[in-house]
Amino acid sequence: FKCAKGATSCCCRRVLYNQPDFVNVKSNLEIICEARGFQVIFLPKFHCEMNFIEQCWGYAKRVYRQFPVTSKESDLEHNVLEALESVPLESIFSIRSRRFMDGYQRGLNGKQAAWASKKYRGHRVLPESIMRELDQAHIA
């Protein structure tokens, strides 16, 4: 929308968007998944560091790049399957994602959050002194 901030009745689109009948409606995806006993979680767009599945893909891609280069389709398929199977189930990457979320909540930008997440790999959350450490490391 290109409406003024806080406007609720400036155009037909905004009026309909704010009607109670439309505000709390579940998507077809949510309805179908919930009927089958699954919970749907919507993650922020363009923040792959907070998405566990993207983290697993990243792990698998790193492993895949370590295989010898080949152009045979059977080898390519085998290597992809091996790389996907290599992702350890116990490393679901939730702690890494949590460190990024903690960094964003503290006001860090993407570069700062990546640096802090790498530095504090063994921690669930970032320390209180993170802003001072970023200044000392000249990470803007």
Distance linking N and C termini: 32 Å
> What is the alpha-carbon Rg in Å?
21 Å
Whole-number tally of structural domains: 3
The global form is: extended
Strand fraction equals under 5%
Number of strands: 0
Q: Describe the main β-sheet briefly.
A: none
Low-confidence stretches: none
Which percent bin holds the helix content?
40-55%
Strand/helix succession? HHHHHHHH
The residue-averaged pLDDT reads 85
Q: Please count the helical segments.
A: 8
Class computed from helices, strands and strand pairing: mainly alpha
Organism: Piloderma croceum (strain F 1598)
Protein name: Tc1-like transposase DDE domain-containing protein
GO molecular function: nucleic acid binding
InterPro entries: RNaseH_sf
